[in-house]
Fold TetR/AcrR family transcriptional regulator.
Amino acid sequence: MTAKRLTAKGEATRRRIVEAAAQLMYEQGVTDATLEDVRAAAGVSGSQIYHYFADKQALLLAVIDHQTEAVLDLQAPHLGRLDTIGELRAWRDMLVENQKRMQCRGGCPIGSIGSQVAETNPEARLAVASGYLRWEQAIRAGLTAMHARGDLAGNPEDLALALLTALQGGLLMAQIHRDVRPLEVALDAVIDRIGSARGPVPEGGQ
Amino acid sequence: MTAKRLTAKGEATRRRIVEAAAQLMYEQGVTDATLEDVRAAAGVSGSQIYHYFADKQALLLAVIDHQTEAVLDLQAPHLGRLDTIGELRAWRDMLVENQKRMQCRGGCPIGSIGSQVAETNPEARLAVASGYLRWEQAIRAGLTAMHARGDLAGNPEDLALALLTALQGGLLMAQIHRDVRPLEVALDAVIDRIGSARGPVPEGGQ
């Protein structure tokens, strides 16, 4: 029982460290957030950090996992049911409202880390890629259902990836401009494409 | 005449410093690329760097300007004439080929800097925003011409921003996945939307 209580306490401490690291990396960038900053923000000792994480790399990978879970949790009420234009628009509205609430700060919790680590840290890049894949699959499920019903002209795999890509561009450009408009228009364009029963026009056509 | 020759030489030296800094920031990230790295890569003395740039911030702003020019120069054969679906597809193909040639490394030359500096360096964030606006305006010109001809159902300003946003997401996700597919499908989706003379479907419609 003592062991069990210690384990629960240990999990809580580990989680506090990861959440502090996620917040600092979000605010200061991955490179500038030091283990000492994390230690102070989490209110733990240096030996406690090293008990859970061998080094900053291990902590960074835990942050990417944590942020992936947070992103999927936040969107969970929508992600499983993106199988009508109305549901896609409701998801889009939720994403836009969320950025307004954040004053367009921080960008995508995993995409912004991805951009920082892509050329210097292959292991972290792959962890972000893995997070993207989970997100893409959750979006794809609804489009596959639309396609099976005959309501989608086009490839649901391509259009699911296009939605996530538009969302990533929208979060980045909203962060740079401190304005949700890039996010709104990019998601609207892809959702309008999904809603176009006619599908793409032929090459050179208008 | 001597003064003139010195000025030309000075401009060449300044340019060499900016190009070395751009390359290092692209490879290592903005924070990790030190002035000493830039000095060594450019083959100049420390006093030469400080002759042209008061500090790393001044150099970073020059890099953002330089990369904006490079991006616009690379796309110049396309950007002035994006007023048909065929021209939009040719631009899309050029962007995809360029990423293939780069093996999807580096992401967008200005977007990747933007993501790194957005929360910590407002002046650099605004410089990236300014680069985005120039790019967006160049894209918008063609769509405005399409709209004036009656060939575009939708707002050309929104769709120009949607194209740039899809491109930004595509470059980021191509960089993370080391695969051009996100770039391809996101640009295709927005171009298909632009080519859909019917425009968006009403709320709840299919």
In short: Chain A has two domains: 1-53, 64-195. Residues 90 and 198 of chain A are 23 Å apart (CA to CA).
